[in-house]
Amino acid sequence: MKNQANPWLTSNLLVLGLGMLPAALLIAALLYFTAWAFAFSFTDLALVGTKAVDWSWVGFQNFERLFTRRGFLESLWTTVIFVFFSALVGQSVLGFLLAATLRGTASRLKSVIEVCIMLGWLLPDIVAAFLWSATTSQTGLINAIFVRPFGLPPINFINDYALPIVIIANIWKGTAWSYLLFSAALDSVSREVVEAAKVDGATPFQRIWLVQLPIIRPHIATNMLFITIWTFTYFPLIYAMTGGGPGRQTETLAVFLYNQSFARGNLGFGSAISVAMLVIVGLLSLVYLRMLREPK
Amino acid sequence: MESNATTSRLTAIALSFMAVIWVSPFSWLILNAFNPMSTGQLEIPKSIGLDNFALAVSGNAGRQFLNSLLIAAGTATLSVVVGISAAYPLSRLRIPGRNAFLWTLVLLRMLPSAGVLVPLYFAAQRGGLLNQFGVIIALTILNLPFTLLLLKNFFDTVPIELEEAAYVEGATLFQIVTRIVLPMSRAGIAVVWFFSFTGAWNEFLLPLIFSRVQDGFPMSVGLYAAFGQQGAINYGFLTAFSIIYAAPAVGVYFLLRRNMNTGFAGVGVKG
Amino acid sequence: MLKKGFLTTVAALSLMATAAIPARAEVTFMYPEWIAALVEPGIANFEKESGETVKGIKLPGQGYDQRIALDLSAGTAADVNVMDSFMVSELAAAGYLEPIGPLAEKWDQYQYYLPGLLEVASYQGQVYALPTDTDVRMLWYDKSNFEKAGITVPWEPKTWADILDAAQKLKDAGVQYPFQLPAGTKQAEAATMQGVYMALLGADVPEGDRNRLLNRETNQWIGDSPALRRTFDLYHQVYVDKKLNPADLNYATDIGAAVRQSLADDKLGILASGSWEDACLWDCNTPPSREERDAQVGWTPWPGSGEPGAKTTTNISGGWTIGINSKATDKDLAFKLVTAIFDEANFKAWTLSTHRMAVRTDISESPEYMADPFLAKATALAADTTGRDTIPGYQTVSALIQQATSDILDGVSVDEVVQNYHDALVDEFGADKVITYE
């Protein structure tokens, strides 16, 4: 519908072009900087020391090591679990359900819920990590309410269930974003359409599934892309909570990347890891892009 | 309608239950913040006091608050202004491959900012931008792919018929954008602005690296005053400071939310 | 990664920029927050004496290492910088630091620095920074738990077998963390220093640096040796075979607090750590009195493995330093600031009040310092100490060691861990820089 020539656009092409100029400049800068990161993956660049100044090209060596050295494949699997459960299942579904349920209601309850999930989002990562580690510790809230009153010995959650705990913490921390986006998107679905569906006798479930979801499909795809990227690269919460441990139980690719680039100081290998992550998410996003297309 | 009463009651109960679960971990934060002898454990304080808050607002906190506000609001505003002026043409003009282009940009942002940090720093230094303005520009650059894609999606949902109608009535491009497109995507713009705001509000590494003087640090850097050398953490300071630190952003959210209702029907009738 | 020409342009530009803003010469100084009590009075004295102004920038400890490396490589660093001693050789190798020796010739207090500690801040025979403090490492133990397990106090283990034996008894007596031996990447440098290196030094004879990570004669990293295998085997016994300690303290969100809490709750048997523990022990808010400390905890030097010819006790030291930027405009003035900070009165007051180990004989031999029974006794350990392998690449090697201990916690065999470690060293430094023993 927007592909036909529209006179107020065609007569102002110059203005529109000028409007795009600042963004184009900044995007060019971004491309320039990311080109560096790409180039680094083919070098033995180090963070400090002589190889920080005097580096050399090493071809695909860094990429070979992703598969011949311990760490990458293990971390990839951990990351897939982490992203699937905390971002796609947790944040996205929960965020949408909340947005759909609270839509249009201006009750006090809505405000309370919003404050609750917004506080999680706005709390600095490092503090959120302390908060969750205190909540799940042997003297923490969960043990105090659900375990000890029943005479059971306190459970050392971080030691025994590290991955589920960081997944829950991440859902708690990140749902606000999906909620916000879906709220705004549902808001742009015109009320008349929903009312019309209601008059036609659609159940609330049908109204969501058949009427609202198709309209906000682009937002769903975008949201999936964003939270996949963020969760794939999300680092501070896990790092502060468990540092990737015990052993390597919660070592996601982001933590692995950090350990290789900063602790070990191998920026070349680190860049290769991030390029590999990019390729993986790039393939995933093809799936999301299909969601953007209109169904027949 | 009447059959909905029980359903909505059930929903309300479920929602309240969720709110309780969601908010319960904060007990740790509150208990420690108001406990002058805080140890970082979950325990009922022997005495309650505001000592931690007094400590948190002493020193550089006021200055840091202003810096945080400047960086966050500056980044958000710049991102949105630059983003709108590019996203509208992107949404309306037939530019081949624009979706793929925007998605690629977003994907490229996956490369860790750590890898980008070094060249970014050298560039900022050459441009004389090792200051807060430099932080704002750098964060805007890093935000732009997300901002563009989101704003374009929101503009896409504005029906072009309304713009046509306005054009027929003699509105200029500027009027069409400011009177129709922007008001109708107000919720989306608010989300993008708020997202950029919170991202910049929590940014730690860029301001730390860019600022040449101590007075240039925002609150995200000030938070780390809680960490001593041998891992001895001042939990009282940490919790009190983070409450003060998170509060303005929550406030900003509620200020924004009031204006977020797009008023779809109203605009439609007038158009 | 940037060409020389570009670097000089950048440096020239930054010089112009610094020259353009303030009219007068000034010294810039960057330091982490925790050391403020030492440097701030020093700066004040310097400003009073010289009439110059110092532009200080105080940073949080978080991100400090990253910033200093970036600042020095971009030419935007302060004239004088506080840095961790393990960074000195890397930064000096890249040409970012000014040798201290020539500047210090005329300073009468330079002679008091302990040579071993100056060596830690040296590169290719030149001193590049002056140490602010140091530490020694030892095994702390909980006396009440030892009595419960029927082990004689004071505990004086002679070999690793004695340690494992005690840990087994502690475990049988129901102690939750019988032997907390730092391991894993989250412990970072603590796993290397407090754990691996302390064991490694006593795992084989010192000849040919067979008990180290590096052969210091040839500057080759040791990729496989009996000492490495014995050390990793010790970890394997503690964490996997005999299950003498759960792993979780090594991954706590706040490791320090978690360790202190388990000490306070009498859940800890033996703790491999260092002299700094004495400042806090189990409560940092209200540190226990000397009597309370002595009643609850004791410490003993790390024993050697018991292998013939190996050291009977081991020790390794670290610490922080202050160094001068090689691009500083007025290096003599910068050094003057350093001497003002390290001036005996100021330095001694800080060392005593923060309970740190002295790095200079004029302070360590002073009556005030000797009056502290813990410091006096711990300083004796410093007589036979060593430093990290201060050649560029140490940081990388240390990270690889930490990853190796992580893998052991995951149950990987010693053979495989050593193989991985060796391969990673070859990846980083090339086959000619890596040797194996036996």
From TrEMBL, chain A:
| Taxonomic superkingdom | Bacteria
Q: Which GO terms describe its cellular component?
A: plasma membrane
> Is Transmembrane helix there in the keyword field?
yes
* InterPro entries listed in its UniProt record: MetI-like, MetI-like_sf
- Gene Ontology terms: biological process: transmembrane transport
Membrane topology type? Multi-pass membrane protein
Which Gene3D superfamilies does the record associate with it? MetI-like (1.10.3720.10)
Record-annotated ABC transmembrane type-1 domain positions: 77-288
Keywords, A to Z, come to: Cell membrane, Membrane, Transmembrane, Transmembrane helix, Transport
Main location class: membrane
Membrane-crossing residue ranges in chain numbering: 12-39, 76-100, 112-132, 161-182, 220-241, 267-289
Q: Name one Pfam family in it.
A: BPD_transp_1
Q: Where in the cell is it found?
A: Cell membrane
Its family remark reads: Belongs to the binding-protein-dependent transport system permease family.
- Name recorded for this polypeptide: ABC transmembrane type-1 domain-containing protein
Species for this entry: Devosia epidermidihirudinis
Automatic annotation (TrEMBL), chain B:
Membrane disposition:
Multi-pass membrane protein
Q: Name one GO cellular component term.
A: plasma membrane
Entries under PANTHER family matching the protein: INNER MEMBRANE ABC TRANSPORTER PERMEASE PROTEIN YCJP, MALTOSE TRANSPORT SYSTEM PERMEASE-RELATED
List, alphabetically, the InterPro entries matched: BP-dep_ABC_trans_perm, MetI-like, MetI-like_sf
Q: Which residues form the ABC transmembrane type-1 domain?
A: 65-256
- Spell out the protein name for this chain: ABC transmembrane type-1 domain-containing protein
> What broad taxonomic lineage does this protein's source fall under?
Bacteria, Pseudomonadati, Pseudomonadota, Alphaproteobacteria, Hyphomicrobiales
Its GO biological process annotations read:
transmembrane transport
- Please give the family membership noted in the entry: Belongs to the binding-protein-dependent transport system permease family.
Instruction: Answer yes or no on keyword Transport.
Output: yes
* Native species: Devosia epidermidihirudinis
Per UniProt, subcellular location reads as: Cell membrane
Query: Where do the TM regions start and end?
Result: 12-31, 65-88, 100-123, 129-151, 189-213, 233-256
| Key words of the record | Cell membrane, Membrane, Transmembrane, Transmembrane helix, Transport
Automatic annotation (TrEMBL), chain C:
Concerning PANTHER family, the annotation shows: ARABINOSE-BINDING PROTEIN-RELATED, BLR3389 PROTEIN
Q: Which organism is it from?
A: Devosia epidermidihirudinis
What is the protein name for this chain?
A: ABC transporter substrate-binding protein
- Where are the stretches annotated Disordered? 291-314
Keyword set includes ATP-binding: no
Keywords per UniProt: Periplasm, Signal
Query: Where does the UniProt annotation locate this protein?
Result: Periplasm
Q: Which InterPro entries match?
A: Bact_solute-bd_prot1, SBP
Predominant subcellular localization, coarse grouping: periplasm
Q: Which residues form the signal peptide?
A: 1-19
Record-linked Pfam families: SBP_bac_1 (PF01547)
The similarity comment for this entry is: Belongs to the bacterial solute-binding protein 1 family.
Question: How is this protein annotated for GO cellular component?
Answer: periplasmic space
